[in-house]
Amino acid sequence: MGAQADDAKPFPASVVGLAAAGGKIHRELQRLSEQYDFIIVDCPPSVTSPVPQSVLLVSDLVIIPTRPSLADIWGVKDTLGLVDRAKVFNENLKVAFLVNALTPRTQLGKDSLEVLETMHGHLFKAVFRQRQAYAQSLVLGGTVFNVPGAKEAQQEVTALGKEVLALLGQK
């Protein structure tokens, strides 16, 4: 049995499975865009899969999450190549990097942030630190806002939300 949100605190978004659309997922997203103000798509981390390529055709913003490690940042470079190819068809596509699972005050974290700042794309000021609240939210079938005592994680998510809205020209 999978995790499911508590009825008293339902998951605050609609979840729609679009895996069957495969490389034509952009058509489904265009259809769904008439019903929603915002659509968040979690794509497989593969530059060879047709799914991310299709999604980028109709996206306003691509958020590239990365852990603060050289191996992950090398993966970011591959993803940027995919984004550059998508920009041929979607010239207004914005790119931003989100550092995930950051361990504060480590040299690796500092070095990773410096490398990301040199890449073409916006580096979010908001970062997600290494916290148990993120894993607990999955177990609860909700978000960090459903996790008791997860104030810091909640603040990180709120800060990211504000930055995303600003990047998209929203209030």
TrEMBL record:
InterPro entries: AAA_dom, DNA_Partitioning_ATPase, P-loop_NTPase. Residues 25-94 form the AAA domain. It comes from the Bacteria. PANTHER family: COBQ_COBB_MIND_PARA NUCLEOTIDE BINDING DOMAIN-CONTAINING PROTEIN, P-LOOP CONTAINING NUCLEOSIDE TRIPHOSPHATE HYDROLASE. This is Cobyrinic acid a,c-diamide synthase. The lineage of its organism: Bacteria, Pseudomonadati, Pseudomonadota, Betaproteobacteria, Burkholderiales.
